From TrEMBL:
This is Uncharacterized protein.
Amino acid sequence: MLEEFRYILSPLNVKKHPEWGAFIELIDYEHRDYIEDVLCEHFDLDYAFSSNEYVTGDYVLYFSANATFEAVEKAVNEINHYHNINNKEYKVAPYT
């Protein structure tokens, strides 16, 4: 991993939106891309929709009815633990 991308190992937090359930705020597009791949490939979790970063400037994944708050929180805790212990990113499938 290039040092300039080491921030993708930053700890994640799950929050609860009153209408849309669990959500995760991310740093930028690269962080969002990596975390959505990890959630899908390693935890079989898909988000329902994301913020429109072109309008809002935010990078947020909302899970709505696709996953419970507890399921997202469990995955995030495991991701944080893996990053903390291994100091490296998860392996995800490369795009072709």
